[in-house]
Design goal:
Blueprint: H1 2-13, E1 20-26, H2 33-41, E2 48-54, H3 61-66, E3 73-77, H4 84-93, E4 99-102, E5 108-109, H5 113-118, E6 126-132, H6 149-155, E7 165-167, H7 168-173, H8 187-197, E8 202-211, H9 216-219, H10 222-236, H11 242-262
Helix pairs in contact: 10-11
């Protein structure tokens, strides 16, 4: 069924390009992926393709995907060995869109997401927005229009991957997400820093245009996150003053302490 769908999708999209290629990495997401896909198919803007990259799910994720007999959907299976960046980058290689949008399989968008973001794409390399469920403590960040490298480095990652639309040419120029296992859980943060450091522009939209689902699978491994952020700070330390690195490490300790209290 997967090969049949891939061939059908290939024949359809070889005749035309699309504006948006939406990359969905997934693994054992049968419970949520239907809502995720439906939220895209119901968009007010319909100029897109959906590229689902499945990490060989062992539940009925593929059956759920196959229940959508849509030519807009292309499905691939690709092993990522626990590094979701591999799935996202693979999806990009299979895309035909001018712009790449990312959506995790347990999240979903509101129907005007693509339409609203389109208004800001011409003059920006990356556009992102608020997500219901993930920006409770960082909503004030979006009161300004532009994001800077130092602001992002010092104050943490406010750019949720499921909210991002990025020019494909910009993404390819910088090699996409890092496959470094030390950066797992913060590989997106690392990419945004890379892009800002190279003078790419990130436009913040102060609107909630999607929903970030918080559940056990994405909130339990605080130790891995702490280790990954520590590695990221060390990686970017040569790019900032020593005092900035010291303060960033202190802020990380405060963040981790608060997270432990919430558990």
């Amino acid at each position: 069924m997967i090969l049949k769908r891939q061939f059908s999708s290939f024949m359809t999209f070889i005749m035309r390009s699309v504006k948006f290629s939406i990359i969905i990495p997934t693994y054992n997401s049968a419970e949520f992926i239907g809502e995720c896909i439906s939220s895209i198919l119901n968009q007010s803007c319909q100029d897109f393709e959906i590229i689902i990259v499945d990490n060989y799910s062992t539940d009925n994720t593929i059956d759920e995907i196959d229940s959508y007999s849509q030519e807009k959907i292309k499905v691939f299976q690709n092993k990522n060995h626990g590094v979701i960046a591999v799935s996202r980058n693979f999806g990009v290689t299979q895309s035909s869109g001018e712009y790449i949008a990312f959506l995790d399989s347990d999240d979903f968008w509101y129907k005007n997401k693509l339409e609203q973001c389109s208004k800001y794409l011409l003059n920006n390399d990356i556009v992102c927005h608020l997500l219901e469920g993930s920006h409770k403590d960082k909503k004030h960040w979006f009161s300004t229009k532009k994001l800077t490298f130092y602001r992002l480095f010092m104050r943490g990652n406010c750019v949720a991957t499921s909210s991002v639309i990025i020019k494909k040419s910009v993404l390819k120029k910088h090699g996409g997400f890092s496959h470094d296992k030390e950066l797992v859980t913060v590989e997106d943060y690392d990419l945004w820093l890379t892009l800002l450091k190279s003078n790419s522009t990130i436009r913040l939209i102060n609107q909630k245009l999607g929903f970030y689902r918080i559940h056990e699978n994405n909130s339990s491994n605080l130790l891995q996150y702490s280790s990954a952020i520590t590695f990221l700070i060390k990686k970017w330390a040569p790019s900032v003053p020593i005092w900035a690195t010291l303060i960033r490490r202190i802020l990380l300790k405060i963040e981790i302490a608060k997270s432990k209290l919430r558990k």
